[in-house]
UniProtKB/TrEMBL annotation:
It comes from Natronorubrum aibiense. InterPro entries: Cyclophilin-like_dom_sf, Cyclophilin_TM1367. Residues 4-121 form the Cyclophilin TM1367-like domain. This is Cyclophilin TM1367-like domain-containing protein. Gene3D superfamilies: 2.40.100.20. It comes from the Archaea. Signal peptide: none annotated.
Length: 124
């Protein structure tokens, strides 16, 4: 089931919640819609978002398409490819993050150059 619409510049993607981080998911659900100026870091795009939640089931290696929250930096992150921290081609955050959702198709992000405005909203 598709739960979220993620708009990155002129690209529209969809995502589904994961079940591994109920506190973070609840906090993000209460906050959406959220938006910010995305900063590119390899195959990751992140923007400022302050949620009052701790790390849950945290990992620095994430699946392709992960939407993750980094509480120490107050950032929401989208991962679709290698980052400067990656080893063996996997998406890897600079520090442990909490994965809350997953993009269903990341191919639209493969041609993204630089940063972009990012908006995450609920699909009604």
């Amino acid at each position: 089931m598709t739960d979220l619409r993620v708009i990155v510049g002129d690209r529209e993607l969809t995502a589904s919640w994961t079940d591994d981080a109920p506190e973070t998911r609840a906090a993000l659900e209460a906050a959406v819609p959220v938006a910010g100026d995305g900063i590119r870091w390899g195959g990751e795009l992140y923007f400022d978002l302050a949620l009052d939640v701790p790390l849950e089931n945290a990992s620095d290696v994430v699946p392709e398409g992960a939407i993750a929250y980094w509480p120490d930096g107050d950032k929401l992150c989208l991962f679709w490819d290698e980052t400067p921290m990656s080893q063996d081609g996997e998406p890897r955050a600079a520090a442990p993050v909490t994965v809350v959702a997953r993009l269903e198709d990341v191919s639209a992000l493969e041609t993204l150059e630089g940063g972009a405005q990012v908006r995450v909203e609920r699909i009604e």
